[in-house]
Amino acid sequence: GVLHEDLRLLLDTALPPKRKKVVLGVGDAKMGAAVLEELGVQCQTGGVVAELMRGIRLHFPALVRGLTAQSAAKAQLGLGHSYSRAKVKFNVHRVDNMIIQSISLLDQLDKDINTFSMRVRSWYGYHFPELIKIVPENSMYCRVAKFIGNRRELSEESLEGLEEIVMDSAKAQAILEASRSSMGMDISPLDLINIESFSRRVISLSDYRKGLQEYLRSKMSQVAPSLSALIGEVVGARLISHAGSLTNLAKYPASTVQILGAEKALFRALKTRGNTPKYGLIFHSTFIGRAAAKNKGRISRYLANKCTIASRIDCFSEVPTSVFGDKLREQVEERLAFYETGEPPRKNLEVMKEAVVEANEVVAEVKRRQEKKEKKRKKREKRRLEALAAAAEEPAENSVMETEENDVGAKKKKKKKKQQQPEESEPEPEPEENGVEEEEEEPLPKKKRKVTVEPEEEEKKKKKKKKKAVAQD
């Protein structure tokens, strides 16, 4: 009954100030009543409004400038996709489609394994017919047939392997004795190879069935814990699969859940005016099998009632727990005891109060664990980001250090080169005050200086000698 905020804002901006004279045409009577209650605007609903809305939708590209039919079709397609995506999007941990597929596959596997095992029995029975009575189970028979192969080769040494398969020493001894006195015909090696390969396939299928059953149990504990705790994982999954989804099962009344799976018997009874069926799929639960013949109808009606409650709790609770399922199971047990011994069961109000208190505690614990996991996840994410940032900074620091080392190395090389330069290199010309530069002669090397200086000294000595000689004369 509360008008949506987006619609309220749209109407406030679109409507003129004088709202008393405005009459809105609304296709939905509930929406018109909500607009009248919230905004005080009169709304008209009826067939005329629906026709007007249809005409506006049809000619909308012509009424709005800049809007083509192609863009309007794209907008409609995008809106349809987003609406469908929102309808399909669910919590991945509470998707019941996987339960429907897995229980269908489980039933199909049961039929196939049964058929294939009968084929192995009839095929291997020509060679060892006495084995069928000793090992009646299908998967174990295939394992034993694969292990034995040719019965003439079975000896005392194979007794330990047989005991591991059949898990019974008496059975293993009986198989050994039967193989020695069997009336079966001989078998060729090629036929034996085919029988062993087919037995291996049947064994692998039975192993896969066990894994699939574990998967179904885990999914039922996540999606419908109360229903699985009340009636079992397999029966609960069959109810969900037959109804189509957990939501559909939650919408069914208890009388429909009671005969769910017995529709043919129901309509045949209605057509022939006979007795209607008392139970459908819930007959496979343990409660109806344990009840007496006169109480089967009553206990099936009571069990269907509790199954409806459990499915609704699982479907519409935020954090599904198995507390309610355990309490409902206790109630069914008490009702069975009441039918047999007359002991009065507890009232439903008391049981539900206890269940609500326990469920609140469990939900609080689950939320606390989820918060801890979220904190740990955030810490791990923070550490990862810090590690990435540190790893990104390290190359930058290394590059800076390398550039500094390169600069220092270049400076050292320059100094060494300057020291290695000869001292006789040309000095840079110094400018004089008047700006005229004097050209200086290039200094000669030392060896050349010695060579040039020696003749001058000899000439001076010769002159001195001549003067002395002249003075003496």
From TrEMBL:
<feature type="domain" description="Nop">
    <location>
        <begin position="223"/>
        <end position="341"/>
    </location>
</feature>
<feature type="region of interest" description="Disordered">
    <location>
        <begin position="389"/>
        <end position="473"/>
    </location>
</feature>
<dbReference type="InterPro" id="IPR045056">
    <property type="entry name" value="Nop56/Nop58"/>
</dbReference>
<dbReference type="InterPro" id="IPR002687">
    <property type="entry name" value="Nop_dom"/>
</dbReference>
<dbReference type="GO" id="GO:0030515">
    <property type="term" value="F:snoRNA binding"/>
</dbReference>
<dbReference type="InterPro" id="IPR012976">
    <property type="entry name" value="NOSIC"/>
</dbReference>
<protein>
    <recommendedName>
        <fullName>Nucleolar protein 56</fullName>
    </recommendedName>
</protein>
<comment type="function">
    <text>Involved in the early to middle stages of 60S ribosomal subunit biogenesis. Required for the biogenesis of box C/D snoRNAs such U3, U8 and U14 snoRNAs. Part of the small subunit (SSU) processome, first precursor of the small eukaryotic ribosomal subunit. During the assembly of the SSU processome in the nucleolus, many ribosome biogenesis factors, an RNA chaperone and ribosomal proteins associate with the nascent pre-rRNA and work in concert to generate RNA folding, modifications, rearrangements and cleavage as well as targeted degradation of pre-ribosomal RNA by the RNA exosome.</text>
</comment>
<dbReference type="InterPro" id="IPR042239">
    <property type="entry name" value="Nop_C"/>
</dbReference>
<feature type="compositionally biased region" description="Acidic residues">
    <location>
        <begin position="423"/>
        <end position="442"/>
    </location>
</feature>
<dbReference type="Pfam" id="PF01798">
    <property type="entry name" value="Nop"/>
</dbReference>
<dbReference type="GO" id="GO:0042254">
    <property type="term" value="P:ribosome biogenesis"/>
</dbReference>
<dbReference type="InterPro" id="IPR036070">
    <property type="entry name" value="Nop_dom_sf"/>
</dbReference>
<comment type="similarity">
    <text>Belongs to the NOP5/NOP56 family.</text>
</comment>
<dbReference type="GO" id="GO:0031428">
    <property type="term" value="C:box C/D methylation guide snoRNP complex"/>
</dbReference>
<keyword id="KW-0539">Nucleus</keyword>
<dbReference type="GO" id="GO:0032040">
    <property type="term" value="C:small-subunit processome"/>
</dbReference>
<feature type="compositionally biased region" description="Basic residues">
    <location>
        <begin position="461"/>
        <end position="473"/>
    </location>
</feature>
<keyword id="KW-0690">Ribosome biogenesis</keyword>
<comment type="subunit">
    <text>Part of a large pre-ribosomal ribonucleoprotein (RNP) complex, that consists of at least 62 ribosomal proteins, 45 nonribosomal proteins and both pre-rRNA and mature rRNA species. Within this complex directly interacts with TCOF1 in an RNA-independent manner. Core component of box C/D small nucleolar ribonucleoprotein (snoRNP) particles; the core proteins SNU13, NOP56, NOP58 and FBL or FBLL1 assemble stepwise onto the snoRNA. Interacts with NOP1 and NOP58. Interacts with NUFIP1, RUVBL1 and RUVBL2; RUVBL1:RUVBL2 seem to bridge the association of NOP56 with NUFIP1.</text>
</comment>
